[in-house]
Amino acid sequence: MELFVLFSILISLAALFSYINVRVFKLPSGISLMLMGTVAALGVISIGHVSSMFTAMVEEKLQLIDFSEFLLGILLSFLLFAGSLHVDLTDLKKSAKSIASFAVIGTVLSTFLVGYGFHYLTSLLDMPVPIIFSLILGALISPTDPIAVMGILKKADLSKTVETNIVGESLFNDGIGVVIFATLLQIASVGIENFGAAEISLLFFREAVGGVIAGAVIGFVGYRLMKSIDHFQTEILISLAMVMGGYSLCHYLHVSGPLAMVVAGIMTGNRGKALAMSDVTRDYLGKFWEVTDEILNAVLFMLIGLEIVVVTFKLSYVVIGLITAVMIVVARFVSLYFTATAFRFIKRLGPGTLKIMTWGGLRGGISIALALSLPSNPYKNIIVSVTFVIVLFSILVQGFTIEPLIRKIAGKKNPQVPV
């Protein structure tokens, strides 16, 4: 019952803050909910200076939810599937080369740039974090969060080319980032001396390629089932089974569930909608997943803001986090520029696209969930605290300024052409 009460409070706060945002601020929902969740958390901390019992009670209630398990084990499957439903396969194919390159090469390069940069920064400040744990931070923070990114893009009127690259990359690099994180975590647990290049490659290949294959199978089975009937209630249930059953299956097969959900969602949103659904089913299924996406996003961003209450912040961690946040922006631009130049599609994207992709590459709940999922070790506190600071900087600073940046680069109010 306590868990039900906690979720009731979260939904009620999300509804209240969403109402205030729609009536007053008119910000992208992700930004507004996280901002107000952060303000609420700071309010709780302030009240705690007067009544420590109140803060302790809030912390106790929030700890009823294992944030990492809640997001990575439950929410992520729904959110990635819902986001992928809106990706146009034709547009995706046109940008397949750049999206795949950014998602794989760009994420790997960014992981190493951020990891080594963080290692040298902490060493410089006499709080050295070993290189393997620094690389783990690089892996969990390098992928852009599709949940946060798509929330911002709903308010930014981008060209189709830029939007497809940003959304496509964020959907796929999320899965790649989780695979890199899992690989590095396993290396940290058994020791690099016991893990050769062949083992690392095999683990990465199994997780990534296995996830794509699993997603294709899940999407195809769902497509065939939907095509054989015309009953929108049952077809919505089938889509739910694809997400919940498919994600659970990926977990037991040790392949990437996030990548599987992206592939299954793209198949359902394109081939499924075009060939397996009636107009009525297409309408109901689209609205069902749109509402589901909004509700889960509201809970997620509210929870991210409130989780600040249970994280231990030190001034030194905040300083390191802010420096690392700037470092990540630089590392992302370098990795994008290097990848676009190496694979010769920088001219097609346009000179301003990489700037928009760099500043619009937001970090969100997935990074926090991965940080919190780390097993207990001497470096977990600094990694979790720094990750929170980076995510707050990303959504509140980059999220607030991405739309003006787009307008400035495009040179007009509503950019509709590639920049």
Automatic annotation (TrEMBL):
Domain of life where this protein originates: Bacteria
Residues of the signal peptide: none
GO cellular component assignments: plasma membrane
Membrane among keywords: yes
Localization terms from the record: Cell membrane
Keyword list, A-Z: Antiport, Cell membrane, Ion transport, Membrane, Sodium, Sodium transport, Transmembrane, Transmembrane helix, Transport
Cation/H+ exchanger transmembrane domain span: 13-407
InterPro entries in UniProt: Cation/H_exchanger_CPA1, Cation/H_exchanger_TM, Na+/solute_symporter_sf
GO biological process: regulation of intracellular pH; sodium ion import across plasma membrane
Transmembrane regions listed in the UniProt entry: 6-24, 31-50, 70-87, 99-119, 131-153, 174-192, 204-225, 255-274, 295-313, 319-344, 356-376, 382-402
Matches recorded under Pfam families: Na_H_Exchanger (PF00999)
Annotated membrane topology: Multi-pass membrane protein
Gene3D superfamilies assigned: 1.20.1530.20
GO molecular function: potassium:proton antiporter activity; sodium:proton antiporter activity
Keyword Transmembrane: yes
Entry's family note: Belongs to the monovalent cation:proton antiporter 1 (CPA1) transporter (TC 2.A.36) family.
Name of the protein this chain belongs to: Sodium:proton antiporter
The species this protein was found in: Dyadobacter pollutisoli
